[in-house]
Structures are given as structure tokens and as C-alpha cells.
């Protein structure tokens, strides 16, 4: 049952009335990852590509949450088939979540079970810091669930980051799903400040609350609710744990216990029944119809989901 669940589109991954643009796509996951890479550019990759990203696209593109809207932007800038590589100036300007979601959409369209996973990668630099990141997890008939990072599908990008592994089979000790990062912190195997959006010396977006938020996003994605990375709900939204001064309250013990449980069910060999049950039965973890979106460019606002 779980494979059929992940082979079907979610509200977020469905191409809708843009589905005809998927005609002619290959079935091979690696080729789909490269097509994804060639349609998108990360909002921080301008320098790598020798391209200056337009400010209006920074504000607009990365706040686009549904695949049909992403596709609408892509084809409006270049009507060519999706299999044709776009120049950086014609690409959708997104973040890691958008690469992961588009590849996930392509795979589901081909009937391949796929889901996005929220966690932390250690391969964007050599400081030992684990950077907030999202990848695609897809089902391989021979090997089971594999992690794919479509951002690395272009050899130019892989070379820039000195990647020494297959982007279609990211080692699980190089990308830790959020629950594994939490467990490493709780057992003392890793420091809380080694996980975040950027290292502590560059700002407040790191540590225990940040990792807990990624578990919440990962659990939602395992239930095919693929939100934006800055969408908040539950205790995080209620208590404003990301205040304007960067201050964070001490995490209450009951909250730690909740994330201990969430980390357990989202780590390792994920139990479909367990992630479904925890998500549907817990008001703090289940994504509500309206979320608080701390949009990095357009400012905080409440958004009602489709």
C-alpha cells in the first residue's frame, strides 16, 4: 500500500492542467534529475553560473509552492519542451525543496514511488556543519529507497562542491534525515549547533528548535504534504520560536519527548503506518489548513493551503 501511496501525486506535486508538458519525458530517474537541474537554479547559485539573479524573481519564484505554478513560470519563460536545457536567466529561481519536489513530481508521473525528505547535508562546504537541505527519496526495485539530490545532477555543480558520490544514491551518512540529526543530538553524538541553515557565527538559524522544525516538515512530507521550508504551525508558530532578535526559548521537556517520538518514526526504515498515525493523531504535528509562512523576502503572513 505504501508504494502505491507514494507513486500517486499529492496536491503539491500534481502538474494539473500543465501535465501535457510531461509528454516525452524519459523514465530513467537519473535523466529526470538532470532535466530537473536544467530547469531550475537555486537562488544562491548565481555566482556559480556567472549569472545575476533578478531581484523580483528572488521575491516571487521561491514563494511558489505548487508544481503546476512552478511549471507555469518555467514554460512562460521558455516554451521549449521540458527536456531542453534552459539558460540560467530562463530558469525558475528556487531552493532545494523545489528541485526535490519537481523530481518527485516527474517520478510519480512515471509511476515511480517518490517522496521528499527534509534533513541536513554535510557536502556544501568542509566545515563539519550540516546544512539544512531537502532531497528526493525514490524507490528502486532492486535496492529499495534511495536518496537523490537533483541539485548535483549537473557535473559543474558536483565539481564545484567536490562531490565524490553518485547524486542518485546519496550516502545516508552525508545526508541525515531530520530525525537522524535529532537522535545524534539527543545521544550526544553531535552538537546542536552543527545543524542549521547556516553556522552559528552567521546568524541564529541553527540548533535544537531548527532540527525539530525539520522533523515536522519531514513528517508532513512523508504524508505527502510538501510545504515550503519556512511554513510554521503547531508549537513553533504559537510560541514564535524564531523571534526577530534570534532568541529561542528553552525547549520544554514534553516537546522534546514529542520530537523523540517523531524522530523515531521518521528515521531508518520508515514505517508507513507509524508516520500516518502520528501525523493524523497529533494536532501539533499535523499540518493545518492555514500555516504561518515566514517568507524570507515577502515577510511573515498566514497562508491557506489548497
Question: Can you put this structure into words, describing what you see?
Answer:
By secondary structure, the chain is α+β, with helices and mostly antiparallel strands. It has one domain (2-304). Helix content is 36%, strand content 16%. It has twelve helices and ten strands. The protein has helices at residues 2-7, 29-39, 46-49, 55-60, 67-77, 96-109, 155-160, 178-186, 208-222, 235-239, 253-266, 272-281; strands spanning 40-42, 92-94, 114-121, 130-140, 144-148, 175-177, 195-196, 231-232, 290-295, 299-304. Strand 4 and strand 5 (144-148) form a beta hairpin. Helix 2 crosses helix 6, helix 8 packs antiparallel against helix 9 (208-222) and helix 9 packs across helix 11. The chain is globular and about 55 Å long. 43% of the residues are buried. The mean pLDDT is 93.
Helix content percent band: 25-40%
Give the overall silhouette.
Answer: globular
Distance between the termini: 25 Å
The profile of the biggest β sheet is: 5 strands, mixed
Q: What structural class should be given to the helix and strand makeup?
A: alpha+beta
- Count of discrete domains: 1
Count helical runs: 12
Record keyword descriptors for this entry:
306 residues, alpha+beta, three-stranded antiparallel sheet, five-stranded mixed sheet, 12 helices, 36% helix
Quick overview of this protein structure:
The chain is built from twelve helices and ten strands. The chain is α+β, with helices and mostly antiparallel strands.
Note the topology:
Elements: H1 2-7, H2 29-39, E1 40-42, H3 46-49, H4 55-60, H5 67-77, E2 92-94, H6 96-109, E3 114-121, E4 130-140, E5 144-148, H7 155-160, E6 175-177, H8 178-186, E7 195-196, H9 208-222, E8 231-232, H10 235-239, H11 253-266, H12 272-281, E9 290-295, E10 299-304
Parallel strand pairs: 1-2, 4-7
Antiparallel strand pairs: 3-4, 3-6, 4-5, 8-9, 9-10
Helix pairs in contact: 2-6, 8-9, 8-11, 9-11
Amino acid at each position: 500500500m505504501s508504494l502505491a501511496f507514494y507513486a500517486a501525486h499529492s496536491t503539491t506535486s500534481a502538474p494539473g492542467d500543465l501535465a501535457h508538458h510531461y509528454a516525452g519525458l524519459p523514465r530513467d530517474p537519473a535523466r529526470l534529475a538532470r532535466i530537473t537541474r536544467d530547469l531550475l537554479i537555486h537562488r544562491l547559485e548565481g555566482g556559480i553560473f556567472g549569472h545575476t539573479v533578478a531581484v523580483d524573481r528572488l521575491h516571487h519564484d521561491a514563494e511558489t509552492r505548487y508544481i503546476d505554478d512552478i511549471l507555469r513560470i518555467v514554460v512562460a519563460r521558455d516554451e521549449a519542451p521540458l527536456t531542453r536545457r534552459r539558460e540560467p536567466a530562463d530558469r525558475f529561481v528556487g531552493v532545494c525543496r523545489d528541485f526535490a519536489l519537481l523530481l518527485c513530481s516527474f517520478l510519480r508521473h512515471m509511476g515511480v514511488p517518490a517522496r521528499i525528505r527534509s534533513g541536513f547535508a554535510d557536502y556544501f562546504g568542509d566545515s563539519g556543519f550540516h546544512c539544512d537541505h531537502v532531497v528526493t527519496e525514490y524507490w528502486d526495485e532492486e535496492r529499495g529507497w534511495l536518496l537523490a539530490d537533483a541539485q548535483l545532477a549537473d557535473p559543474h555543480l558536483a565539481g564545484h562542491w567536490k562531490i565524490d558520490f553518485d547524486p542518485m544514491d546519496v550516502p545516508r551518512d552525508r545526508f541525515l534525515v531530520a530525525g537522524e540529526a535529532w537522535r545524534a543530538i539527543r545521544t550526544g553524538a553531535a552538537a546542536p549547533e552543527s545543524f542549521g541553515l547556516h553556522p552559528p557565527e552567521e546568524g541564529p538559524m541553527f540548533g535544537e528548535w531548527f532540527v525539530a522544525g525539520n522533523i515536522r516538515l519531514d513528517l508532513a512530507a512523508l504524508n505527502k504534504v510538501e510545504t515550503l521550508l519556512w511554513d510554521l504551525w503547531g508549537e513553533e508558530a504559537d510560541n514564535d520560536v524564531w523571534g526577530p532578535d534570534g532568541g529561542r526559548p528553552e525547549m520544554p521537556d514534553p516537546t522534546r519527548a514529542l520530537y523523540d517520538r517523531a524522530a523515531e518514526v521518521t528515521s531508518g526504515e520508515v514505517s508507513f503506518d507509524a508516520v500516518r498515525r502520528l501525523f493524523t493523531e497529533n494536532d501539533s504535528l499535523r499540518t493545518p489548513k492555514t500555516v504561518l509562512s515566514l517568507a524570507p523576502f515577502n515577510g511573515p503572513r498566514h497562508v491557506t493551503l489548497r
